[in-house]
Design brief:
The chain is of the alpha/beta class. The chain is built from ten helices and twelve strands. It has a single domain, classed as TIM Barrel, CATH 3.20.20.20. Ligand YH5 binds next to strand 9.
């Protein structure tokens, strides 16, 4: 079963015949990547966010991933109202930019509101395991990204990073979640899979998943890979989060070479350029 290369994300078709870039738009005060620059005196600075979103689109992002829950290891949960206050106004504004808007959330109420505002994709690090999420996504007809996380909370996931075979367990988990989705009426052509780099995994687990990503690709669904600036890269290079561009690009290209079709990244322009080199190389037989 090979996936169709075009996903219909609400109003927007998303062509996955070549790898595309998903830009990360974090709307959390502790957002590691921006040092909290989106916040000033506890108040969201929407202009800054909107400018960042516009820049990502200009730099070639096909998708913007908007999230208001911090899912860093050990992060504390946010309330539903807080999450809504963070993401909904941003979704309303960036909708006009003409790219696919992805909602990074596990919360059914947030999903429902975001769907009404016109998001094109649901990205759930908990793979629709929260009560009601499956039904809402099914009714929306939108594509969904199912991610693997051991356990169900960033607060506890690193405490139980144990696997017999990490690749087999991740694949089994994702296939089980696909089955749940199918039973709830979600079309298989609307499913994206993600091994969940850094979510309840040691460095060795993450590297095995990256090295064997083709095994997940072989399941027949588009694969999303998110390694950008993650601590696995810091562990390899011994560099802090603001010094992980080169390692982030390397890991994105490795993932794309193994068949990942969506690269979730902070550094859009650089990743788009790196992918251009890969796709130009792979297309040598198509045209001169
Ligand atoms: C993902 O992999 N990740 S949020 C810690 C970091 C850097 C980045 C300290 N949402 C994923 O990006 N959704 C997140 O360094 C995601 N796949 C999908 N589908 C965590 C994150 C990060 C955490």
């Amino acid at each position: 079963m090979v996936h169709n290369s075009v996903l219909q994300c609400g109003d927007h078709p998303l062509d996955l015949s070549e790898p595309v870039v998903m830009g990360i738009l974090n709307i959390t005060p502790d957002s590691f990547s921006d040092g909290g620059q989106f916040y000033q005196q506890d108040r969201l600075v929407y202009d800054t966010i909107l400018r960042k979103a516009e820049q990502m689109v200009a730099d070639g992002a096909s998708i913007l991933d908007i999230g208001g829950e911090s899912t860093r290891p050990g992060a504390l949960p946010v309330s539903i109202d807080q999450e809504m206050d963070r993401v909904l106004p941003v979704i309303e504004k960036v909708r006009e930019l003409g790219v696919v808007i992805s909602l990074d959330s596990s919360e059914p109420k947030v999903m429902q509101e975001a769907i009404e505002l016109g998001v094109g994709l649901i990205n759930d690090v908990r793979a629709l395991r929260r009560e009601g999420a499956l039904e809402i996504v099914s009714a929306s007809g939108l594509p969904v990204c199912l991610m693997h996380m051991q356990g169900d909370s960033p607060l506890t996931m690193q405490k139980q990073a144990q696997y017999h075979s990490v690749i087999d367990e991740v694949a089994d988990f994702l296939e089980y979640q696909v089955e749940r989705c199918s039973n709830a009426g979600i079309k298989q052509s609307n499913i994206i899979l993600d091994p969940g780099f850094g979510f309840g995994k040691t460095l060795r687990h993450n590297l095995t998943l990256l090295n064997r990503l083709d095994q997940l690709v072989a399941l027949g669904y588009p694969v999303l890979s998110g390694t950008s600036r993650k601590s696995m890269l810091g562990q390899i290079t011994e560099r802090g989060t603001d010094q992980r561009l080169a390692s982030s690009l390397s890991s994105a290209i490795i993932a794309a070479q193994k068949g990942a079709r969506i690269l979730r990244v902070h550094d859009v322009a650089e990743t788009v350029d790196a992918l251009k080199v890969l796709t130009a190389t792979c297309n040598e037989n198509w045209e001169s």
